[in-house]
Amino acid sequence: MPDGTQKTRRIPTFNTLARENAFRNPPKEGSTYSILNEFVASHLESFNALFDDSGLPSGDGDGRGLLSLALKDVGERVAFDGDGKVGSESGPDGWGNRMRIWIEQVTVARPMVPEKDRTARERKVFPSEARERLTSYRGRMTVKLCWTDISGQRHEMPKDCGLLPIMVRSVRCNLRSMSSAELVKHHEEPEEFGGYFVINGNERLIRYLILPRRNHVISLLRPSFSNRGPSYTQYAVQMRCVRPDQTSVTNTLHYLSNGSAMLRFSWRKQEYVIPIMLVLKALVGASDKEIFEGVMMQDYENTFLTDRVELLLRSFKMFTMQTGEQCLEYLGDKFRVVLNLPEDWTNAAQGAWLLKKMILVHLETPREKFRMLLFMLRKLYSLVSGSCCADNPDSPQHQEVLLPGSLYGMIIKERLEEILNGIRMGISMDVRNGVAVDFNDKRYFQKIVSKVNFDIGAKLSNFLATGNLVSPTGLDLQQASGFTIVAEKLNWQRYISHFRCIHRGAFFAELKTTTVRKLLPEAWGFLCPVHTPDGSPCGLLNHLSRSCRITTTPLAVAHIPALLAAHGMTQVFTPKIDGRKNLSVQLDGRVIGWARPSVAAQLATNLRIWKTEGKHEVPLDLEIGLVPVSNGGQYPGLFLFSTTARMMRPVKYLGNGRDDQVGPFEQVYMNIACTPEEIEEAVSTHVEHEPTNFLSILANLTPFSDFNQSPRNIYQCQMGKQSMGTPATALQHRTDNKLYRLQTGQSPVVRPALHNTYAMDSFPNGTNAIVAVISYTGYDMEDAMILNKSAHERGFGYGTVYKSQIIDLKDMRGASKLTSAPTLHFGLANDIRTTGDNMHTCLEFLDLDGLPFVGARLSSGDPIAAYVDDTTGRTKFVRYKGDELGYIDEVRLLGSDAGDTELQKIHITLRITRSPVIGDKFSSRHGQKGVCSQKWPAVDMPFSESGMQPDVIINPHAFPSRMTIGMLVESMAGKAGAMHGLAQDATPFKFSEEDTAINYFGEQLLAAGYNYYGNEPMYSGITGQEFAADIYIGVVYYQRLRHMVLDKFQVRTTGPVDPVTRQPVKGRKRAGGIRFGEMERDALIAHGTSFLLQDRLMNCSDYSTAWVCRTCGSLISLGYEDVTLGEMVVGTSKTLKPSGPGGEYCRVCRAASEEEDERERQALATGQHLQRPQADITIPISSQHVLNRASKGGDLDVVAVPYVFRYLCAELASMGIAVSLEVR
Amino acid sequence: MQSHDDLEPTVRIRELKKDRVNFVLGNVDLAFANSLRRVMMADIPTVAIDMVEIEINTTVLPDEFIAHRLGMVPLMSSNCDEAIRNTRDCTCLAGCSFCSILLVLNVGCHDDTTMEVTSAHLDVIPYPEEGLETQDSGEELSKRGEYFGHPVGKNEPGVAPILICKIRKGQELKVKCVAKKGIAKEHAKWSPCSAVSFEYDPYNKLRHTKYWFETDERGEWPTSDNGKEEEPPRDDEPFDFNAKPNKFYFEVETDGSLGPQEVVMKDFSNFITTAGSSRTTDKIGQPHPRTQNTTRG
Fold first, then answer.
1. ipTM of this model?
2. How close B183 comes to chain A (CA, Å)?
3. 3-state DSSP of B264-289
4. Where is this region: Disordered (chain B) (predicted)?
5. How far is B199 from chain A (nearest CA, A)?
6. Do A749 and A834 reside in the same domain of the chain?
């Protein structure tokens, strides 16, 4: 200021203007909130890694993409034109000419407009188009198929593999590296971060899945192993070995009770076990001595070990195979039938191939595999002897993540393999069937190829759309479905948490034991302890902690063995290593040397210093797992991991104050202080960057969560995801099935620091409400809350539901199956009068093109579209089916891919207004949910001295048992923040016992003229009298949850009934009833309220009256005579047939009586009727003149029975069981 | 307390501003004071837009939001009692010049900047002639002020209008609104007050309440400004359990549709007319015991 006075300007804390400016003018470079791109990085980068031009660091490899690596691993298939009969004309060994077939190159293009369309000027297709047109976002995939002819000449042909779904914002996406401004231009959110696929207009993503840690031997103790066969025990060691192309093979080494071990692997979903000795010998042709020394490692005093190894060696004697070659031939011979390798390969070659492809596939050379197998054996024996414990496969220490891109690549690889197998099969089928096979004829090859399904794109679309994995090998995964989920944009919180969720596996969901669901201390910092759903997926569906990331790039570690050797590690090939004194040093499941424990510890420290300081080119993401020697603990060693798909998180290394990345394997043996104050000298190795880093993003957003009882924070993580909020800002470009939107979202006064970091204010999720904690009207009992009617009228919690309706004329009745000439067209035919006085009523809603007006107000049954049927020439209407009032918000005309067909499909967004009503659910951010029970008039609401009236009243009983002190603190902080215009920082762990939150906000409140603890004297709105107690009132951020009565209420007086039982049907949609079940029945019986019981179970259900025969008691033998003619029906014997007054009779009894009658008559006629007591005179009197006789079969009564009872009687009758009722 | 039963009720205005009045009401009892508060909040009629006919709406906001926002705009409503009828009491079928006011809003944006549609764009238009004028001989029209029914602040310089919607080039909003008389019991938009503060007994001498405190009552409970008006209690003062509150501190803040003095005056008169029917000779503010509970306006 010129006059020297300081103009005091407060620093804005809500940043409203800055945010508005950023929203209106999105940055032209980069994005508004770059952190949002970081947390989906693993999704994107793992997808990018498929391609050669991924832009990721190459590590030790040549930087080729996973697809290229997969092609290398797939190799070639060989087909022959001979049938293998020796001596036939096709060559000496009968196989004839050899054709090699392989795929040389896979290319995936960016999504483009098809060539057919010549009018489009922008050839690129963007995700918003796929979303709005309800199609998939796909790019063309082509392969280069190569084969050789008889002369060995190489031929190639490009082959189209269909349209492959492309991950949004990946390297193949047209939105790649767009700035916020460009994204907005392409109808995306300015914060769009991608990581998902668009399939049929839905956003679907591949969920992270927990897998066993790759290339690391874990020891297992499973009682179920002993059921695998005779002499199998519960002990095993297992290793999930991963090839460079991310496909994996699990090798399990089982301990047998006779001391030997069996190696198990699976090939095409079939499990095979091989004696370990066979493998050891086949690999390097090892002598018995070599194996003995390799396992013993000079520990000759260990009789346990010597006994076992002796047994192991002895057990192999019965195979009588001495050399490695013999073993290979034996293996090849046995596996020849299943492997489907070229028929001209020798057994030894097939055996070698098996070892290469199935045993320890992460290792290249047989010698390395041999060393690793010896290590596995040692670990197995150590486990059996009890000198080391079993590893916990449920602990994140032994887990890694299945990345979306890796899974995608695996499926593509398998499909490519299947294509090659298909071609080979096609040729051999032709050979077998005697079809002319000519390898020199290009057309023949083309004919074979045309029979094979090349459409990989459709397969992957199906995979993404359903989440079902159709695979002949099972991809070494434990489940075949549930891989993909829809990224629901219910609100922003739900949306972003999809990208951070990580599932344990569908297999574990069915497990009865709950051990897998346990929260383990090893998960600290990697999986959020708070953010997991309650209910069935609890503990199985976790979310990554905020700072946890998943490595996606391979590291350059080729120089590490030499580096370690230079610093004291014994080289791996050194003979005579003392296993008692040396620890194994392994890098990614490869034994690279040995070191004494002290040396190993020193090496680990050195590596950590080097990697944090960037020396010796040790990568920062290297995981240095030093397992120290212990008594019966985890098997010791120095295990280094550099591969992808590991969880890592940043902490600070105390040794040099640098940033470090730690993984779950090494973290177990570290001492990481949560705060700088907690650092203990000589104990702590690391310190957290932030004490809140172990929480997930959502858990971090709960204000003052450290004040709450922990389950309440879990509930809030659930409810935050269910609240009505702002799902997207590009709402007019969304076609989601159902979107919930809160009209008056606000920025919370009280929010943790991360609220800003994660752009939560761009997608507000609730409103700041004045909340009084008072038991006021009785309508706030049992978690109900009272809304201020005036606040409601001013728009508190006003929400909108957007629903989609798709009208596709192809699916309508009368549509022609031919795509070329549709018979249905949108529009009005001549039968609709469009002008004049008696204009058709549909014109209130529809325009002349048959499409609805935007803004039209619809109630149930109103037309929303009209179309003309060519065949009848009449107009048909599509009607609005919802029960609620809806408005047409948007009408979208959907064309075909090439844009050259007539309009057949429209998408309508309906807007349904949802003002809060009694019964709608609200919650604070502390797991305190409640239902609105009344809208209370403002004059009757309690008020404070300053005239403030609460928007919401909640009952104080909501607090004592739930202990959500965070909500009380939020109330205080919100009140102070509102008075002073401050956004209050609610980050947990900011306050301490000495510096309490209560005092901090109490001072602020006092400064604003309020009571220190947030209480206020309040007055009854009805009498004006001051309440005897002062009331806790403050500002709390309230969320409106999506559960609304309008979607849930179910009432019925009368309505549809089940045709069989005549009982009311169930189901809200069908206007059904709510079952009055057994327990409810019990209650009525216990109360003795028999009238109610009768009413519920009989009168209001399937009450019916039925004729029951008094004679035989049957309910189901009713017959009717037509008595309207006023005549008695006379039977064949001229007797009057017995029937009731209405002509009803019992068919059974009448038949019986007629039969008896007939019999008596005949007896009378033949004079054999002698049994009767003899009368003096016998006069044949017709039965109609005998009293009481006629009633037989006609004596029926009406009783009230449940209709199902009759049904039951009929069913029983069909089984030959008669039900007889006694009528009194 | 027989002593002030005989006293006349007093109103002492401490502060009167354009949109607020601060006064002390004395020598009345609690029920009366609270009734005044309630009447001010919910029973003073004003006019507010009640029906919106949307002709063109190409803004980003849907029709119902616009209608809601228009309804919340305060309209000048002075002398509402005489200047306008309730539609339900009117002889007309669905609205006439005696019981409603027509406002139109017709805005389109034709340049590249974002345009703000505000309450200032709302114009009152005369009711179209219906030919019924002769039958109805209401004198309401003559009682209306110059700006009756106009949005608050429209004709005053320096008052920012109320934002209704923002539009960009090519968007348009054309609506016809019908404003009607109503009270806040029906809908909050008809409330002339934004807040009514109400206090008595700042030192809690009557012990109606109990100030909860952790350690120190004085330190944790700041006294309100109204404490200056009364003697702080001496520590040895005996508790007078017969005492009744008789001094009430009010502050009424309006939304501008009515002036604060009009709200309060209307409040008193309204109260008298409604309560008066059952009252005979009692003085204002000391209702007859029989009528004490029936004074809800």
1. 0.88
2. 12
3. HHHHHHHHHHHHHCCCCCCCCCCCCH
4. 218-243, 275-297
5. 5
6. no
